[in-house]
Amino acid sequence: MSPQEVLSGLDGFTIEVPSWAYGNSGTRFKVFSTPGTPRDPFEKIADAARVHALTGLAPRVSLHIPWDRVEDYGALAAHAEEHGVRIGAINSNLFQDDDYKFGSLTHTDPKVRAKAVEHHLECVDIMAKTGSTDLKLWLPDGTNYAGQASLRARQDRLADSLTQIYAALEPHHRLLVEYKFFEPYFYAMDIPDWGTALLHCQALGDRAQVVLDTGHHAPGTNIEFIVMQLLRAGRLGAFDFNSRYYADDDLIVGSADPFQLFRIMAEIASVGGHLPESGVNFMLDQCHNIEDKIAGQIRSVLNVEQALAKALLVDTDALTSAEEAGDVIGAHDVLMDAFHTDVRGALADRREARGLPRDPMAAYRASGYAAEIAAGRIGGTQAAWT
Amino acid sequence: MSPQEVLSGLDGFTIEVPSWAYGNSGTRFKVFSTPGTPRDPFEKIADAARVHALTGLAPRVSLHIPWDRVEDYGALAAHAEEHGVRIGAINSNLFQDDDYKFGSLTHTDPKVRAKAVEHHLECVDIMAKTGSTDLKLWLPDGTNYAGQASLRARQDRLADSLTQIYAALEPHHRLLVEYKFFEPYFYAMDIPDWGTALLHCQALGDRAQVVLDTGHHAPGTNIEFIVMQLLRAGRLGAFDFNSRYYADDDLIVGSADPFQLFRIMAEIASVGGHLPESGVNFMLDQCHNIEDKIAGQIRSVLNVEQALAKALLVDTDALTSAEEAGDVIGAHDVLMDAFHTDVRGALADRREARGLPRDPMAAYRASGYAAEIAAGRIGGTQAAWT
Amino acid sequence: MSPQEVLSGLDGFTIEVPSWAYGNSGTRFKVFSTPGTPRDPFEKIADAARVHALTGLAPRVSLHIPWDRVEDYGALAAHAEEHGVRIGAINSNLFQDDDYKFGSLTHTDPKVRAKAVEHHLECVDIMAKTGSTDLKLWLPDGTNYAGQASLRARQDRLADSLTQIYAALEPHHRLLVEYKFFEPYFYAMDIPDWGTALLHCQALGDRAQVVLDTGHHAPGTNIEFIVMQLLRAGRLGAFDFNSRYYADDDLIVGSADPFQLFRIMAEIASVGGHLPESGVNFMLDQCHNIEDKIAGQIRSVLNVEQALAKALLVDTDALTSAEEAGDVIGAHDVLMDAFHTDVRGALADRREARGLPRDPMAAYRASGYAAEIAAGRIGGTQAAWT
Amino acid sequence: MSPQEVLSGLDGFTIEVPSWAYGNSGTRFKVFSTPGTPRDPFEKIADAARVHALTGLAPRVSLHIPWDRVEDYGALAAHAEEHGVRIGAINSNLFQDDDYKFGSLTHTDPKVRAKAVEHHLECVDIMAKTGSTDLKLWLPDGTNYAGQASLRARQDRLADSLTQIYAALEPHHRLLVEYKFFEPYFYAMDIPDWGTALLHCQALGDRAQVVLDTGHHAPGTNIEFIVMQLLRAGRLGAFDFNSRYYADDDLIVGSADPFQLFRIMAEIASVGGHLPESGVNFMLDQCHNIEDKIAGQIRSVLNVEQALAKALLVDTDALTSAEEAGDVIGAHDVLMDAFHTDVRGALADRREARGLPRDPMAAYRASGYAAEIAAGRIGGTQAAWT
């Protein structure tokens, strides 16, 4: 196949961007503010649409409730459509209410659990109003001290809460369950690993799927192995892409270990997981603490595209032959050949052919959009990640 | 309850010791030899029996095939019985054959897979001859380089191989499947985590259970959480106990993080997992590279007993009350009260009441057994871990 | 020696508590508020004094500037003295100013560096006014992306800035330099490890010393080794005690790995580092995100005391003999004997003999202080960690 | 500058290969044997020379004593010269003698320490006979259990032993001191980190320098930071290059995280550390457990060359400008532009121009050398890593 033919494998591949990436974010130590930061969900969607306009890769925007609560969700969806994008997954929030100090869906108090379940019914309602089909649930519940709570009783209460949420979904909805190794709790998270997420999804039904956030694993974890395993089990619902060196650093995807991102995309591509019919939702979940947010999002979607393009170049026949021959270095070299290939020119050509800027980063810088929003978005409260 | 009543919870609790702990072991850099090291399975069992005689805690010995191959397994079982112990789990070996360089149950070559399956039929046969009911399988298969092999095809081949092994079991047999984070391969292990082990066990049937080796996890992993989850799923078949600071260090259990061992046993005790009817097999898997091996095993079983004794002291009503009241420090303190209690005197009293030495370590030192075997086991080849 | 004689080694041992532990803290996801939280430095000192009154262990309070800025530092010092405590180390803050987004003492812009240096001159001034002799500097500077900055140029600028600060100290002052593995930056911290802190201290002079925060290391790091090495080099200035399972979790010291805390204190005690003349300042640096703050501080100082008490029980002659005999388990058992000893009764006796409550936790609960401050501290703004 | 001009920065850059890479290696579980494995140091050097002949990059071979002991070192050096290479660093061995079970240079027994020091005098003698100028010392000493030994006394004994070794060096010799996080001991290594290695080098003198093995760090450690710091302190003596995912995996350098290798080489290149006059010795230290050893070495030196070539492409002016402008993504993108550039063609051109094969891997495969040595090296004992 020619490179062009290979890159046609990118057709139909899309990435979903999160509304919260356009607001301010930070660490527990400091949230720096930035000129031009959106002040409401409409402005966030306008920024997200700019990413799509320049890259052609990001036609959907995830919302986060309550951060993106509006009076009229129909108007928000229409606003998105006018800007050339649409609403993606609806993310619930179980970490910002004082009631959730000791848990939400896992809390000992049935009233708190009911409140947390109820919040998801609101999200399902917003799904109906915005056309979203994915309800994404990251459970931030956990404990800080051994003995603080019964790990097992919390699982039982969680299972019960999830059953209620799952029951509220419409038949074309999915429940996407995310796991996280640690933070915001430091002794035990209630869904710390893919095994736990999978067990809950198995108990719920086929439309419960696992979300793999690339920053939510222990040091050294082989993430592409988990990708393979969840695909094999038919339970990989979505990615939350980002980069990490240490913990859940939430850096630009592909910035810390581009080879890992390539390996993940190669695992995906090897079974057609990048094709729209696979049902895998490729989402970003990042924090642009110190860098320009829109440029950060453009860089991120380009990095994912680049990794997938390289993955599509892998000569799988040669790989299989080398494996069967026990040619360890030969097989590894087949993979590395794809990784070391510079696909940036071919991707620029492809963009141009589709009426997009060859260099979206340069086009963004040249567009004056940053200056425009910095000047225009004076007053109001800057949206923040938290 | 009085302390004595509490410690009656130890009645019936047993630990299984591995035959290979009595042979020499080491790192890839060096295996140091030791006077008195057993030269055959009969001598290993004699040493293991000494651990049981002094502690009353270790009535079973795991065998490892082919390291413990003998002409007459009936004779070996009888030898064990004469020494007051019996044969425990049969451990297969998939890592020491040149054919397994690129995999055993996962190999691309069906002949290699057949050989690896066949090896387990031998193990099942040994189970029949020795009265063992647990077949323990640690899959050392893996790859060192990305691209070296198809992670997914290896899972499919593994599933097929495991199905054949499981089919060979008798109805009262269990298959215990162990997972390991890394080593002896360094890119991807084929069963790296409890989720993967669980998926294979689910596919096989109820008598396929997971083995949790306390040294086989990523840094920071909350092991008692996995214990809880596997118990909740009805799939915790056995432990391989040992200690680690870094990797799979295989140190004496309880020597590196006694509080972690206590938390694990507290999770076990909270649902009666320490009772014989739970079916959880508490095994050791350690390497005494530089220390006396028999003393190392005595120390290990005493450490597990001590941790369980402390776990039995936990005031679970107070824990639950504190949790329900949101009293974080109060709940934690309930757990710590049990941990900080010095149970050594009570355990010595209990030993004395059962006709055992108050201090098994001192009794072992005073017994002259070490000098006796050092003098008697001259000539032959010292058994080694590998 | 009798236990009482052994525990007389605790005489003169003190722990310094941080003013910020009494304010609210949290993660980047949420800071929960708490009834009774202090609203100014005077109330923080009142709370800290309560910890000392109940334990007799915590006669000093660290301040943090600007969080603890007041009009009249003399009045604050007098307030402390009235409450039975005094002012300890002055902590500077280099992470909360918008100017510091890309660095403070390391910034490319000399004006920003000058501002950051200037801030320390204010701290030195506060030292003069409060009687403090320790200036503690945690450098939060770092970068999130490879290429973002020249790692080396930042070291050079840091060295220059530190030289200016050191020059401003009075002869009886020390500069305590803290290192941290990661956070709030995720690619490279500018002082990530003890080696870097040491190099800067060596360049500055004898009164520049290293601060070891127990939560600021890579997974698996042997902290007592670093304690030993810094003591051997004459550069261990202070501890920031806390506990961690994963990252810089800032949990109650001794709650996650009490054996590690014991090993650290044993290393300290083996060279008399716990004696006042050693110059090591034993400080806490913790966040009580979800637990009662004053109770959390009491528990923390008691945990450190307990660990030191056990460390003092170690039979060092037996240790040395066992080492020289190559008796690995024997030597380890000497250490474990001390660790497994329950010293709580002896410590309660000692407290009673000194006119302190036998059980400071119970005494605090019984005192009504929590209810008193919850009722009395209405209105105003709760102090927060950030 | 044109790419050719940029790549002229590679002139004079060399990599040193280890004799032991050509022998068999493995894990503690298994050492697989391989056809054609050298049976003596002469055959190892012949294999190493083949790597240099095909790549032009590897003109020196490190020896390991006692593995490479020969009757006549002059003959060995002449043999090397005939094959177009020369002898590089002499590596001592402190881990394979039964006397070293509890330590070598740190042992409590002065006789054992004397023996370990004496071994280095032999190495110095071999240096004289082979023309080597670097004595490389990896201290494998450590302990497995807390309490097993006095960490501090071991440092003192180590310092004394190192002083004796250093005193035996000739004026043009260097002592290269390597550190390692863990293995073969699992509680504490006696030189676990760069800070400890540095302190010993400082005590010894200017010709004592630190060796950075890329596999010898805690998870998450920023290695290029340490490179920078050691260069800044004038103490970076050498690299031991390899790759890791988990522990000291000793995989082919550049195979696990090529971006990390690039960052390291970029840090090197930014201060001219790749130039011969810098004195940094770029060595490999790897284990080819399952792959072809000579091909593995060729791949390794090519990977280092490729990483350096990309590093030389970095536009440092643009980097500095972006940093000064606070343009985080812009600066990062400058670095990534170099990394994403495919330099393989330019490097092939450069090789061709120097009379070397364009594709050394293919040339090696086509050469028939593997078949030749497999056929010729029958009988004798295969050399092994240990």
From TrEMBL, chains A, B, C, D:
<dbReference type="InterPro" id="IPR050337">
    <property type="entry name" value="L-rhamnose_isomerase"/>
</dbReference>
<protein>
    <submittedName>
        <fullName>L-rhamnose isomerase/sugar isomerase</fullName>
        <ecNumber>5.3.1.-</ecNumber>
        <ecNumber>5.3.1.14</ecNumber>
    </submittedName>
</protein>
<dbReference type="GO" id="GO:0019324">
    <property type="term" value="P:L-lyxose metabolic process"/>
</dbReference>
<dbReference type="GO" id="GO:0008740">
    <property type="term" value="F:L-rhamnose isomerase activity"/>
</dbReference>
<feature type="domain" description="Xylose isomerase-like TIM barrel">
    <location>
        <begin position="73"/>
        <end position="250"/>
    </location>
</feature>
<keyword id="KW-0464">Manganese</keyword>
<dbReference type="InterPro" id="IPR013457">
    <property type="entry name" value="Rhamnose_iso-rel"/>
</dbReference>
<dbReference type="Pfam" id="PF01261">
    <property type="entry name" value="AP_endonuc_2"/>
</dbReference>
<dbReference type="InterPro" id="IPR013022">
    <property type="entry name" value="Xyl_isomerase-like_TIM-brl"/>
</dbReference>
<dbReference type="InterPro" id="IPR036237">
    <property type="entry name" value="Xyl_isomerase-like_sf"/>
</dbReference>
<dbReference type="GO" id="GO:0046872">
    <property type="term" value="F:metal ion binding"/>
</dbReference>
<keyword id="KW-0413">Isomerase</keyword>
<keyword id="KW-0479">Metal-binding</keyword>
<dbReference type="GO" id="GO:0019301">
    <property type="term" value="P:rhamnose catabolic process"/>
</dbReference>
